[in-house]
Amino acid sequence: MKKLLIVLFAIHSSFALSQEKKKTTDFPPKQAAVEPKAIEINESNSAEKLPIFPGGVMKFRDKLAEKIDPNKIIGSGKLRAVLVFDVDTEGEIADIKVNGQNTSFNAEIQKAVLRINGKWIPAEMKGKKVKYKYTIPVIMMFES
């Protein structure tokens, strides 16, 4: 067994919801005969309704664990990283960042997020869909 993946995924840990202020307005990519529209800026990262992944957040974490290829991770033992991404007004994941000490683990988490199929239900504030920043701690144990 080259590497055995034991998913600890910090089930007991909760989501750390970061607050980051943005002072820019995002526009959808240019398309023929489509007027660009301003997207609601959620400077306080607050929402009356949080974004929801189909099946719930634990389903998202399970899918993330499934999509991580342990053979592409250099190192063993308990690896930690913090996954940060935006759920935009269309329910798409954007601006993925992973912070941790093991760069191969960070890169594989980022790739795994991109391999997950399924849109989120966007966050809402005052009846309007808003962009929302999610922060998820990722902890996994790898054995040689």
Walk me through the structure.
- This protein is of the alpha+beta class and 144 residues long.
- It has one domain (4-17, 42-143): Fusion Protein Consisting Of Minor Coat Protein, Glycine Rich Linker, Tola, And A His Tag, Chain: A, Domain 2.
- 17% of the residues lie in helices and 28% in strands.
- It is built from two helices and six strands.
- It has helices at 57-67, 103-115; strands at 4-7, 77-87, 93-100, 123-125, 128-130, 132-143.
- The strands form two sheets. It has a four-stranded antiparallel β-sheet with strand order 1-6-2-3, covered by helices on one side.
- β4 (123-125) and β5 (128-130) form a beta hairpin.
- α1 (57-67) packs across α2.
- The longest helix is centred in the last third of the chain and has 13 residues, at 103-115.
- The termini are close together.
- Residues 1-41 have low confidence and may be disordered.
- Residues 1-18 form the signal peptide.
- This is TonB C-terminal domain-containing protein.
- Keywords: Signal.
